[in-house]
Every structure is written in structure tokens, then in C-alpha cells.
Amino acid sequence: MTTENHQERVSVLGLGAMGGALAEALMRAGHPTTVWNRSAGKADALAARGATAAATARDAVRAGPVVIVCLLDHASVHEVLDPLAGELAGRTVVNVTTTSPAQSRELAAWAERSGVTYLDGGIMAVPQMIGKPGSSVLYSGAADAFHQYKPLLDTWGTSTYHGEDAGMASLYDLALLAGMYVMFAGFLHGAAMVAPAGVSASEFAAMAAPWLRAMTGAFEEYAAVIDGGDYAVAGQQSLVFSSLDDILDASTGQGVSTEVVAAVQGLIQRQIDAGHGHEGFARIIESLRHPA
Ligand code: NDP
Questions:
Q1: Lower CB density within 10 Å: C or N end of the chain?
Q2: CATH of residue 84
């Protein structure tokens, strides 16, 4: 990391909860930072601490070689960037707005046509985590831009690069979020089950957190089975043994919806019906790979 890189001029478009946190981290690291937000007021606190508040997105873009974009969604990114293609030509856009892989690739193609260097980012953190341990951001797209600006990007958390395909960062981001949301739904299902027994959600959380943490150890075992391609490898719990009927019965008994657990039971049952009941739990990835 050179001093020059540390002091790279940078512009941030979008000062919502996340964009504001990103700009703040850049300023803390000593980067001369120009900020812009569509509606007034959100730049004031940053300007009071030394950021340059640009009156327009165009002015912000003109302020430096690298433009961080953290807006609501794909449509808002186009709405802001399209009229600025001329100014952006020759500059680098790092777009950390959440978009689908297809939208990221579309933006990368738009950038290429406009002579803009494009790096897509997926933020694996909430605003309060930015710049702190545990925060990570996934990138894909222009490799040179990633390496050139890595010291700047590292001010937000651990930066990792996932290849020239601009859609990859988003794909990993959304795949990781899929795991998170389903896990959260599973936790909430459990909390709903014990609630009628007078157990508070906080009490249940204290039990569920260490249990689920311990269970993540199984990911690598399942992954080895999937990558090895033999779901019948010895030493696994079989699908017939993994029936979730007891959980479904207990849920119904507690007056709780079975939607979350029934979805998993459906994935298991399809493999049993296809004659794979003696194989291990990892086999249900085949139900996911081949939608019913
Ligand atoms: P906010 O809702 O707090 O901010 C949205 C920002 O987008 C505001 O600056 C808003 O401007 C701007 N905006 C929306 N529409 C337009 C438009 N048409 N033209 C110009 N500006 C527009 O969201 P966050 O800051 O939390 O999130 C920003 C991005 O970061 C999202 O894509 C989100 O998915 C992603 N992200 C957020 C995380 C989080 O925990 N917050 C975690 C990981 C990723 P205005 O103030 O004028 O409304």
C-alpha cells in the first residue's frame, strides 16, 4: 500500500445508510472524498467533517478518477449514470448497489460501450460493520481496477476479487444471502414453535445461536460429498432417516405454519420418491438443481 493510493481522490454517489457509511470510512482513511446525494441534507454531516459536497452528480464525477455508486437498485444506477456517460469515460465506476448478476453484466456492458472501467461489488455487511472486523466486500469485473484501488476498497472490509465476469460478485452475494434468509426463517420457525410454551424469542435465541454455529461444521462434509459425486458414501445419515415428519407434527401441534419445514421435506421426499432414500442428506441438492 502506497501513501499515494491511501490518498486517492474518490467520489461517492448515494448517501443512504450504506453509501454514508462507505463515504465515512473513506474519509477516516484520509481519502479526499466528494459526496453527492439526490435529496438534500444527507451530505451535511459528512461535509462538516471535511467531505466536499457536490451540488450535482456530474460535479461529483468530475472530482476524481474513481466513482463509488451506492444507490437503491439497478434502475436508479442507470437513472443517475446514463446522463453522465461522457464524464465517466476514462474513469472507474465501482458499483456496490445490490443488483442481480444479469443486471451487473448489463451495467458492465453499458460501461464498456461508454469507455468506463467497471467493477461490481457485493457488500457482505450492514452499515454499522463497514470498516470493522467481519465486514467483507466481493468484487468482480475489471481486474486492473480492483488491484489499483484495493487499498481504497480495503477501508470498508476484506476485499476479494472473483473474476472478470461482472456478475460473479452479485451471484456470490445473493447465494450467501439465500443461506442467510433460509437460516433466519428456520430460527424464527423454531422461535414460533416454543412461544406457546412460554419461551421468549430471546431465550430461544440463546439456545439456537450456538447450535446453528456448531452445525455449520457440516457444510464442508456435505460439500465433499457433493464434489465427490457419490451421495451414497458411507457414514452419512440417510434421507429416509432424515424425515422431518416429527418436526411438522410438532409444529402443527403448536399451531405453527409448516411452510418453511415442509419446503425442506418436499426436497427430501422428491429424492426418496426417485429411489435415493438410502443416500445421504446432501442428495437434496439434486432436487434444487432439477426444479420439479
Ligand atoms: P437507502 O435506502 O438508505 O439509500 C438509498 C440511496 O439511493 C439514497 O441515497 C437515495 O437517495 C438513493 N436513490 C434511490 N433512488 C434513487 C434515484 N432514482 N436517483 C438517485 N438516487 C436514488 O439504502 P442503503 O444505503 O441501505 O442501500 C444502498 C445499496 O446498498 C442497496 O442496493 C442495498 O441493497 C445495498 N446494501 C445495503 C446494505 C444495508 O444493510 N443497508 C447491506 C448490503 C448492501 P435519496 O436520499 O434522495 O432517497
A1: C
A2: 3.40.50.720
The binding-site residues of ligand 1, defined as CB within 6 angstroms of any ligand atom, are: 14-19, 37-39, 42, 70-73, 76, 79-80, 97-98, 123, 126-127
Residues 56 and 156 in one domain: yes
The residue segments making up the domain with residue 112 are 10-164
**Rounded-to-integer distance, Cα 257 and Cα 126, Å:** 30
Side chain identity at residue 115, one-letter code: G
Q: For residues 12 and 19, is the Cβ–Cβ distance under 8 A?
A: yes
CB neighbour burial string for 93-131, b if at least 16 within 10 angstroms, e if fewer: bbbbbbbebebbbbbbebbeebebbbbbbbbbbebebbb
3: confidence class by pLDDT, cuts 50, 70, 90: very low
Q: Last residue of some domain: 164, 196, 226?
A: 164
- CB proximity list for 159: less than 8 A, separation 6 or greater: 136, 137, 139, 146, 150, 153
The answer to whether 257 touches 282, Cβ cutoff 8 Å, is: no
Residue among 15, 18, 84, 174 whose CB has most ligand 1 atoms within 8 A, to mutate:
18
Same domain, 80 and 112: yes
N-to-C CA span, the chain: 51
Return the C-alpha cell found at 208: 439456537
Is the pTM of the predicted complex or chain greater than 0.90? Answer: yes
